[in-house]
Amino acid sequence: MTQTPPILRVSHLSHRFSDGTLALDQVTLDFQAGELTVLVGANGSGKTTLLRHLNGLLMPQCGDVEVCGVSVQKNPKAARKRVGMVFQDADSQIVGETVYDDVAFGPENLKLNRDTIEHQVRAALSTVGLWDMAEKPSYVLSGGQKRRLAIAGVLAMKPEILLMDEPFSNLDYPSLCQVRDQILALHQDGHTLVITTHELEKIVHYAQRLVVMEKGRVVRDGAPQDVAHALERYGICSPCFMQAACGRSPWTP
Amino acid sequence: MDTLTFMGFSPGDSLLHRLDPRTKQILLILAGGFCLNKNPLFLGLMTLALAGAGHQARLSFFRLIKEIRYFLFFLAGVFAVRVITLSDHWTLSVDPDGLQESVLMLWGLVLVVVMGILLMVTTRISHIRAALVWFLAPVPFVNERSIATMVGLMVRFLPLILFQAAEMADAQRARGIDHRKNPLYRLSCFTFPLFRRIFLKTDDLAAALQARCYTDNRTLPQLVFSRIDALILWAVLVMMGVSISVFSHP
User: Fold this and answer.
1) Is residue A233 part of a domain?
2) Fewest CB within 10 A of the end CB: N or C in chain B?
3) pLDDT tens-digit profile of A109-138?
4) Measured between alpha carbons, how far apart are the two ends of chain B, in Å?
5) pLDDT digits (tens, 9 = 90+) for A19-67
6) pLDDT, tens digit, 9 for 90 and up, residues B172-209
7) CB-based contact (8 Å) between A232 and chain B?
8) How far A62 CA sits from the closest chain B CA (Å)?
9) Which contiguous run of DSSP H or E holds residue A31?
């Protein structure tokens, strides 16, 4: 049986910041199309730096990143069209004054014609349930709506792969459920998703793969049920239901 | 957050909403400039026209006054300085010669500000940007698309910067900055962290723009100069002509 080639391939990727800190150290990972991967690690473990390499915001100093077989270094623009990124701080990502303008920003950059832009903006806003708010100023949206707007802004560019940096941070429970449902719907639609989070229990149940990073290296990689029991040694809190299943009170060492 | 923002685009289908943004910008420059000419007939006609247009665009009069209240205080100060004089006997008196001129000047300034607000309320930023690109295109050595993007980003991020400044001021007050009497110390405590934060945000913004394939050469909104635009422009030019002829030849 032949295995399909990975949609995203990271080979021996290393990155050192200008202050000398080694952010990524020989990271090698393959992502299959349609996979939902959760990437966890303590602060400073290299999760965000890795995501930024996957769509060419950072270029490899050593190693390579390939999207659909094409090196990101050789063609960063093609990588950014295929790999959309939702940032941790939605406010920094939203550039349009109104909801509509913000979602149209990406397709306008791709030089699509006006009718196509209109169509893709409508589709993206409908997908995240914000079409009714298309004319609202973006700064009046709630935290959850801003996060969904950020997702719509990326979806309007029709990417195959979505990277999400801490999509659940600073959200109340209803907003969190909306964002999580959005992620699951995107996954059902066949998107490949890579999500970094500190709040593992909100998504781990739905993930096919759990990757643990520590000090810039991948230290665990596998199915969530195989990896999640050993998280605390890497400074990551196990989901409460797993702690309870082991007979431990949640949030105790 | 909402209280820190100025009037922004409000969707609608009024005459002003339907006008080409280039027409609105030309009108702002033409009529705004002429308002400062202190022609009472033109000011009266423009006041009526703006009141009608504002009403049709559903611009609340009270909200408008609230938005420009600080400007009105400033104008009241200018008015007082121009009109009230101190006589030889240290008594205050009103200069009747300056009164009429000052009223006309301040009236004109208020109309210019109202025109600016009407432009903002009835025009999408992306359309203002597209019009700016159109106007700047013939100017040599100017990258009109970069300038238009900068204007758009400034309008988008000004409320955020104001919000951060207010949040930072609150945090510093909570830690007793009010007890420090040295204004330079207080200023440095406020400005350095604020600028640092703004620069970090700018970095994030640059990454977000890159991630969404930002380029100067983007699809711009289509601008359509219709018959109604031509009519309105002619009407304002006629108003200006009539006002000049009436007040130049009494």
Assistant:
1) yes
2) C
3) 888 999 999 999 999 999 888 999 998 888
4) 53
5) 888 999 999 999 999 999 999 999 999 999 999 999 899 999 999 999 9
6) 888 888 888 888 888 888 899 899 988 888 888 888 88
7) no
8) 21
9) strand A22-31
In this structure, is residue A3 part of a structural domain?
Answer: no
Q: Is residue A250 part of a domain?
A: no
- Alpha carbons A161 and B135: distance in angstroms, whole number: 39
Q: Which residues of B touch A98 (CB under 8 A)?
A: 9, 124-125
What ipTM, to 2 d.p.?
0.79
Q: Which residue of B has its CA nearest to A153?
A: B212
Cβ neighbours for A113, distance < 8 A, ≥ 6 positions apart: B219
B224/chain A closest Cα distance in angstroms: 14
Contact between chains at A111 and B124 (C-beta distance less than 8 A) = no
Q: What is the pLDDT of residues A73-99, one digit of tens each?
A: 998 888 988 999 999 888 878 888 789
In a domain, A48, yes or no: yes
Q: Which residues of B fall within a CB distance of 8 Å from A84?
A: 211
Would you give the end-to-end CA distance of chain A in angstroms?
45
- Residue A208 near residue A223, CB atoms below 8 Å: yes
| Parallel/antiparallel/unpaired status of strands A209-214 and A70-71 | unpaired
Inter-chain contact A98–B159, Cβ cutoff 8 Å?
Answer: no
Q: How far is B68 from chain A (nearest CA, A)?
A: 20
CA distance A129 to A132: 8
User: Which range marks the domain in which residue A126 is found?
Assistant: 8-245
Contacts across the A-B interface (CB distance below 8 Å) = 92
In 3D, which of A11, A97, A20, A95 has the Cα closest to residue A53? A11
Distance CA A231, CA A38 (A): 13
Which CA distances in Å does B20 have to A105, B26, B140, B233, B239?
21, 10, 25, 11, 20
Q: What's the CATH number where A30 sits?
A: 3.40.50.300
A152 contacts A124 by C-beta, under 8 angstroms: yes
Range from B120-124, B137-141, B232-236 that averages highest in pLDDT: B232-236
Q: Give the gap in angstroms from C-alpha B31 to the nearest C-alpha of chain A.
A: 27
DSSP A98: B
Choose the mutation target among A91, A136, A149 for the interface with B, i.e. most B CBs under 10 Å. A91
Q: Residues A182-202: what's their mean pLDDT? A: 92
Q: Contact, B159 vs B1, CB < 8 A?
A: yes
Number of domains in chain A: 1
Cβ separation B124–A92 shorter than 8 A: no
Residue type, A225: Q
* CA dist., res. B232 & res. B226, Å (int): 10
List CB contacts of A160: < 8 A, sequence separation 6 or more. A7, A33, A68, A82, A83, A191, A192
Q: How many C-beta neighbours within 10 Å does residue A153 have?
A: 31
